[in-house]
User: What shape does this take?
Amino acid sequence: MPEMKLEMQVNGRKVMRLADPGQRLLDFLRDELNLTGTKEGCGAGECGTCSVFVDGKLVKSCLMPVAKAQGAEIQTVEGLAKPGELEAIQKAFHKTGASQCGYCIPGMVMAATSVLREAPEASLDEIKERMGGNICRCTGYSKIIEAVALARDVVTGRASPAVLEPETVGESYIGHNVRRLDAPSKVTGRLKYAGDMVMPDMAHMAVLRSPHAHAEIVSIDTSEAEAMAGVACVITAADVPGTDGFGVFVHDQPVMARGKVRHVGEAVAAVAAEDAATARRALTKIKVEYRDLPGLFDPEDALKPGAPVIHDYAPDNMVKHIPIRKGDIEAGFAAADLILEEAFSTQQVEHAYLEPEAGIAYVDHDDVVTVISPSQNITHHRHMLAGILALPINKVRFIMSPVGGGFGGKEDMIYQGMLALAAMKTHRPVRLVFTREESIAASAKRHPSRVTYRMGLTRDGRITAIRFEMLSDGGAYGMSSEGVMRKAAILSCGPYEIENLWIDTRAVYTNNTPSGAFRTFGGMQAQFATESMMDIAAERLGLDPFEIRRRNMMRAGSLTHTQQRLTSASIDRVLEAAEQASRWEPGAPTMRGPMRGDLGGPGTRAPCTLGARFETPKDSKERVA
Amino acid sequence: MLTFERYEMPATLPEALALWAEAPAGARLVAGATDILPWAREGRAGDVDLPLGIDLSRVAELRGYERHGARVRLGANTVWQDFLDDPRLARWLPVMPYCSVWFADDQIRQQATLAGNLVNASPAADGTPPVLALNGELELCRWAGDHIMCRTMRVEDFVTGPGATRLAPGEIVNSVTLDIAEGYGASFQKAGLRRSLVISVACVAALVKLDETGTRFADVRLALGGVGPVPERLRDIEDRLRGAAVDARLIAEVAEATASRVASRSRVDYRRRVVPGFVRAALEEAADRARVAPSAAERKEAENA
Amino acid sequence: MQRRMRGRGVAASWYGIARTATVDRAGAWAELDDGGTAKVVTGVTEIGEGILTVLAQIAAEELGIRPEDVTIGDNDTARSPEAAHAGATRQTYMIGNSVALACREARARLFAEIAAHWEVDAGALVAFDGELRAQGTNLAMTMAEAVDLCKRRGVVPVGAGHFTAHGTGLNPEDGSGAPWQAYVFGTQVAEVEVDTVTGEVQVLGLWAAHDVGRVINPRGVEGQIEGGVVQGLGQALMEDYQTANGHPVTHGFAKYILPTALDVPEITSILVEDRDPLSPLGAKGIGEPALVPTAPAIINAIHDAVGVRIRSLPATPEKVLAAIAEKQAREAAAAKAAE
Assistant: This one.
């Protein structure tokens, strides 16, 4: 690597380092200066977790070679407020509850600071427009924008600084808007996520991933990589001492591919080295010989006779089938005045938590193999890893680092095993941080679904029978498919009491990216179909959408789809609450939009056309265009 | 991951050109760096180690802009945010702010240069249609042993296909010269899956100048991007409208005919539906804005007052 | 058809709290500490939902101190009791109730000592916000003094608690069973605008009414609803992970499109409290259920606006525009046939 004498002012202090001028400003701040409040979310300028000021202008530090910052004045989130203090914008984030997982928050605070500096009179629309380069996956932005508007009002003197103070408690702390206790650590960038943590003598891991969807591994030759200067170890499936397999339900996934690969991006081998660049270079020296196997890419194909088999234990490629039967489906359809048949589908969805997977493993002084990672289930991960490592369970320890967004995607133990193996092999702390692309290719997705729906109704809108079938692509490994199919089946036909049901949900193996746990665990895919059906039925029967739902809704004493007797059901209350709050104008859903009188009222925003900054607010300086 | 064996920050154009003239194979010029860094990642180029990066951001000659009569010459380091933050540029080049506000986001616009966007010649580049509409011309310079040789080329001729241009070995874009279109109404139409950081499926840039009665097209500039290998000026429509009365039916009629311009290989049906709607909306919006756009004389008066 | 068309749609939903069709359990430890502070140890940490703040509120309420006086550890399988996974909308329900029970045990230890000292019935003691008093008397002290006194009497006020949710497995033949002991319900209304030139859909307003059981932190609940709605919006309109023969095509955030601040509607949350009778707190949950009705509400609203039914998510501009064109062609053909 070339070296250059880099000099700049960082957060008001003069900094001088001999460093690679072509490295990103982001790496320079994080690795050379330990300013880890600036995060890497995507490395491609798409998310804004790395936003910093360079000579007063907000930029994405993952898109700037550090040489461009030579001689510049840099301000990072750590430099906004004095230690122990918060700026108005940070207080506002604290007050409104604008931080959740917190990983986007340093960048958001920087973007908000830029708004307050560049356009202190900005309207709500202009605030959003100027913050359009920063992605948040947790908050839905609402409380963030509220915070920026609150800080704007304080900074411009329109509101008293008192509005930033906490609300006083009444008679109870339950039901009270206690400000988030973790917010100060998030709005200042002080909170350390796993990828921000550094240990003495730490090695850095990189993972070799499969370029094939389905292939036999004929051989792996790691000798050249092992021999490279700076390489601490190379690991493959051969290094696993215990029973290799993990999964939320069925333990069908090896720590690294064993014998064959089942999806593109599956881990095949890993290198721990002095730095991440060396580890990545070493990956190119590992020689893997593959023999291609026929692949399965469509769940329908997986069920066909003679289809390739993905896992030997499941020759029919079925991960899980959940049946639910209630009443007499034939009688129910026979009693119907109207029978609707429809098909629906939903796509695979990425969790897109802004913190890519990361972790550190080490073997402690008592020989306890310890893994620090944003795992959503340390209890189960410890259990599985003890089996994989053939260790007593109290010789394996999981520490849950702050999770920069999970949504179910961090329930799968897809990398902690590799870290543990490398730490055991080297007796050094080993850290792995996924790139965004790696996270997307290797982590589970929301199950895509195909639903065929048959619904029978009487003329007055009462559902007499439902036949519901869902087929889901579980991808290459079981992960949470079993549970997702179960929850999808249980919830499938919605909050309605239906006498006659026939429900089947199935997940099958393919060679696609695995599907797994994702917020709602099958519930949204199934209910998307049901709630679409309810409106289709309402249109056909000339009923208001609320009315048809009321005619079928569960009540106290109802029998659910799984024949559980409910002691209470608040569906009537939430229907009424939504109807009233939205000032819903009743009527059948027959493309009523052009005639409705309830549109555009309180609770709506204006459509975004971009260019909010071109509109000159009164009493403001001239704007361009 | 992008690494450079050598990274140079020349301070003058002769230095930059001399480095570039002698650069080893595989060396790259770095302007805003907002395209090259995302390019060197998995799924695209993967890990890339370049023998040399020549960073142009400190080259003095590429900075700033100056007016030459009815044209403005923008140094190649002019960034997209300048069209939003510099009221004079916004006034001279009324289509640029509307395009700029759709371009990536505020932060990327602080780094991304107009020239870089033109040189990358992405078929989805937002920047090219407005530049075509403003009769953009590039100044291309190279080192000729002991002096600088420059030539000029219309942007329309410069971009030859997706990612392909007529930039010759050893050449650096020195400046972009555009028509000053003060008093024109402008519009930029773009669609996408969301409202920020949008990648174009198709875009339209329009500039309209009305006659003194405000009822006839005195001048029309119209350019289309994202619908074929290269962005194009719709001169036949411009000619048809110039001198004609501003009329919704006429606009709708000329717009309808633009569906046939779509030559993309993907998402053809969608583009064929969207483009006529965009052309119509762009012409109508630009004409509306032209009606309220103050003339240069009025502007001057207001400034002096 | 005008260029911009608006419409509204509604969708209802239901959801179960905690792990599905199984017995769910969690444990926690608590200690009233010097200075009237407290330590609470659980096996779980924040994934962004606000659980640490919720637990601090619960501990503060149960122990009679302030949330900022509560220190929460340890998220560590070697140092803390089992809490199991951070998911399944189980945090407030499972860990929250465990913490409440652990705190009650610690408080009972302390109250027994103070009641003996004051010679009153322990049932007369009330603690809130750092102050302890005996009802019907003028006896009062700070919680800092109370802990000091308790310890001087030789007792460290500690407690442990665990909570069980009694779900049952499903019958493998007919699926019958009681998968959860607590259910929540929700309804959302979406108002959209469809651009008939581009097919773009903007969601302008969204009303979300959710039963969450007893509300612990209203802003926290709103935050969960807002976040869930926007994830639902992303799935309804733009997000689409795609592979070609198993190879990821959407390999980064330039290709995998997420909603930005410009894409979100104004969101009005309405919190409905149908308290859970089977748990000490009466709270249920909101993490996952918030996003269930969003996509169908949006899709139903698109139908209301332009009369097309999108059956396949996401409703991209391309898909919406193609559906509008198909509808117009169908209507034109029908009109022609009618002539």
Q: What stands out?
A: The interface with chain A takes residues 1-7, 9, 30, 32-34, 37-38, 41-43, 47, 53, 55, 57, 81, 83-87, 90-91, 94, 97-98, 101-102, 104-108, 110-111, 195-197 of chain B (CB under 8 Å). Chain B has a mean pLDDT of 94.
